[in-house]
Specification:
elongated, binds iron/sulfur cluster, alpha+beta, 3 domains, about 700 residues, about 45% helix
Length: about 700
């Protein structure tokens, strides 16, 4: 019956999944939330009106201006770094950065993080993200790069870790793309001698030529006509000279050093060279301060070089260059990304005979070759830092997992020694509750299952799951253990809340509290609750993660383990009720309510081995194990339901204990009763090995 029910639930869920996924996927890649001008001003710590301009360049974001003055940049961690939280949903943090590369403000815009929604106060989250204010991306002092960073919040390691990772990666990407970080993304270290032709061949310097005849046609009708011919109207060259291989070869070591030293942080240097009739500088710049003949276009940004960042270069140092009449060096502002393609435009104008202006534009596209791009700075991934920091915790968990593996492999010999089993079991459960649960916060949750399913749809990222080493180790072990032993490997031994229930029930039994036996038919019908909760939480998460997280509050883990009962009274009361019920019905919560236990039972169907033994007499002559089973996983025919069994090994101890097992007692008394005639036992819910020992 249970199998049929189980299949029905699974079928309903699987048939609904495509629709759920379709509906959900549209929510998975939402647009980043745009900042308002007020928000931008606040994050950049500026009084007064600002305007915010969207920038859809390679690293998208927003530029904030006050009149013509650039005040800073904004970027979304969801848009730039694709930050996905513990829930598998976008974790969108808006960060503001000054033109000098200092983070001036951070705001959490959107998230579906369970622990942030229901577990941590708004003040704590605000304090945490505010801790990034002041971080300086241009600070490369070893050991203190950027300045101190706030520690991730221990009860929300994954969520706050993802926030941290997203902020740092996005800020760096933004700083590099906007040319703020020293080097502007251009390699300023490597130098190879090269001559003019080599630079042209590499594409480090590009050129274009317009003949007099071409210009004469384009400017036909000019009052002072351009005379046709093969000579140069203009031969124009340009290149970004930040890289020594380009700049030092072109300018010579001294001039190159002076050029770099004069560059403000985040700026890059553009050399423009020309020869021919048409000057690229003209003379108006002396009056206006702007070289209006020249325009740099990059995507939707235009920039005219100004006199402030201009230097006249008299001659090139490179060998093999042609004779060049005009050489200009300009500081390019951070708004032009030298690592991205841009176009240099030279505008040539003439007065027409009619008095109008005739114009022609000479375009020179430029794309700095990739060998001159600096390898992006990649700080050590956060998950690796956390693993190093949590060495002791991971060591303890690894130790527990090794011990458990030994126990499970040696179960046959352990279960023949009831005292050893009891000592091992109680001490392991106590360690699970106290060390794994209360100290290391190693409680798995159905929310992680939901997060995992969502991550499969949105793009699985190991980094997100590696941020919490204890949880990662547990899930890895459980995933493998499910194949060998079923869900019991977690529920029976590694679940802190399960351990707490079992310990409390053991105390209750010691104190003589009478246990309630739930009639088998009702017991089996109550299982529906936990499976329904599991399917409900997963399905709901595709419609509303927030609502799913609220439904997941049916798990008492956050209250009892993560928050150690320091929570609003309704949550605490709920846990107390569950634990009280568990004093009368062993593992009451595991039996009927736990959605995680239900979720783990599904892959338990894949279990390859059966380690638990049964005697032919089980369920027919004797029902002791059935009454003693920790979770009521043995039916009236003596069969073990692998979906329910938590692998406590109690039934195995009983069947090996000559003081408990009636079959062994009878054998010990030398009973002459002949063994029962073979009876065909109906196929068990999950096949179990039948004890090879003669009855
Ligand atoms: S059923 Fe739930 S509470 Fe019980 S041991 Fe398993 S995961 Fe823990
Ligand atoms: S008593 Fe036996 S059947 Fe019951 S949970 Fe423990 S190992 Fe599983």
């Amino acid at each position: 019956m249970i199998n049929r029910l189980f299949c029905l639930i699974l079928l309903c869920f699987l048939s609904a999944l495509p629709a759920l996924a379709n509906n959900g996927i549209s929510q998975f890649a939402p647009e980043p939330l745009s900042p308002t001008p007020e928000m931008a001003a606040q994050l950049l710590q500026i009084d007064g009106p600002v305007h915010v301009i969207r920038d859809d360049s390679s690293v998208p974001g927003w530029s904030v201006f006050e009149g013509p003055n650039l005040l800073g940049y904004l970027g979304s961690t969801w848009e730039i770094a694709g930050s996905v939280g513990y829930s598998g949903r976008p974790l969108d943090v808006l960060l503001a950065m000054s033109p000098e590369g200092r983070i001036t403000g951070v705001q959490l815009m959107r998230h579906d993080e369970p622990i942030l929604t229901l577990g941590i106060s708004e003040t704590a989250i605000t304090q945490y993200v505010d801790g990034y204010t002041g971080y300086d991306l241009t600070d490369t002092t070893p050991g203190s790069e950027g300045g101190a960073l706030p520690d991730v919040i221990s009860r929300a390691t994954v969520s706050t870790g993802v926030i941290r990772d997203g902020i740092l990666r996005s800020a760096r990407a933004l700083a590099v793309a906007r040319g703020i970080v020293a080097g502007s993304g251009v390699d300023r270290i490597n130098y190879e001698p090269a001559d003019w032709d080599a630079l042209l061949a590499m594409g480090a310097v590009v050129g274009t030529r317009v003949s007099m005849s071409t210009a004469a046609d384009a400017l036909a009708g000019a009052k002072v006509p351009v005379l046709p011919g093969d000579d140069d109207f203009v031969h124009l060259w340009a290149g970004v000279v930040d890289s020594p291989t380009i700049g030092r070869n072109l300018l010579g070591p001294q001039e190159f050093a002076r050029t770099l030293a004069a560059l403000p942080t985040g700026h890059s240097a553009l050399i423009v060279m020309s020869t021919g009739l048409q000057s690229h500088r003209g003379t108006d710049w002396k009056r206006t301060g702007i070289f209006d003949r020249l325009t740099i276009r990059q995507q939707d940004r235009d920039w005219h070089p100004g006199v402030a960042g201009y230097r006249l270069i008299r001659r090139l140092a490179i060998s093999g260059s042609p004779e060049i009449r005009e050489i200009s060096l300009f500081d390019m502002p951070p708004t032009i990304d030298p690592t991205q393609p841009f176009t240099l435009e030279l505008r040539a104008t003439r007065v027409a005979r009619s008095g109008d202006e005739l114009a022609m534009t000479i375009s020179l596209p430029y794309d700095l070759p990739s060998e001159f791009h600096m390898a992006p700075y990649t700080p050590e991934p956060l998950w690796r830092q956390i693993w190093v920091k949590k060495k002791l915790a991971t060591g303890l968990v690894a130790g527990m997992l090794i011990i458990l593996t030994v126990i499970l492999f040696a179960q046959d010999s352990i279960t023949r020694r009831p005292r050893l089993w009891r000592a091992l079991r109680l001490s392991f459960l106590a360690t699970t509750f106290l060390v794994l649960g209360m100290v290391l916060n190693g409680q798995l949750s159905v929310v992680q299952v939901v997060a995992f399913l969502h991550s499969l749809l949105t793009g699985f990222r190991w980094e997100t799951f590696l941020i919490e080493p204890v949880i990662f180790l547990l899930w890895s072990f459980v995933a493998l253990g499910l194949l060998f032993w079923g869900r019991g490997v977690y529920c029976g031994w590694l679940c802190p809340f399960g351990a707490l229930q079992e310990i409390l029930n053991a105390v209750a039994q010691r104190l003589g509290i009478r246990q309630i036996t739930v009639p088998q038919p009702l017991h089996e019908r109550l299982w529906v609750l936990k499976y329904s909760l599991f399917v409900g939480i997963v399905a709901l998460s595709f419609y509303s993660m927030h609502d799913a997280l609220i439904l997941a509050e049916v798990e008492p883990f956050k209250t009892a383990i993560s928050m150690r009962f320091v929570r609003a009274w309704p949550f605490v009361l709920f846990v107390v009720v569950i634990l009280t019920a568990g004093l009368f019905i062993e593992r009451f919560y595991c039996r009927y309510l736990c959605p995680l236990g239900a979720g783990l039972a599904i892959p338990a169907k894949l279990k390859i081995f059966d380690w638990l033994h049964r005697r032919p007499q089980c369920g027919r002559e004797c029902r002791l194990c059935e009454t003693k089973c920790t979770v009521g996983a043995i039916d009236s025919l003596g069969r073990i339901n692998a979906n329910e069994c938590v692998l406590c090994l109690r039934c195995q101890v009983i069947m090996n204990d000559a003081t408990q097992c009636p079959v062994l007692k009878r054998r010990a008394r030398g009973a002459t009763t002949p063994p029962p005639a073979p009876v065909r036992v109906p196929a068990p819910t999950q096949p179990v090995a039948t004890d090879a020992v003669a009855p």
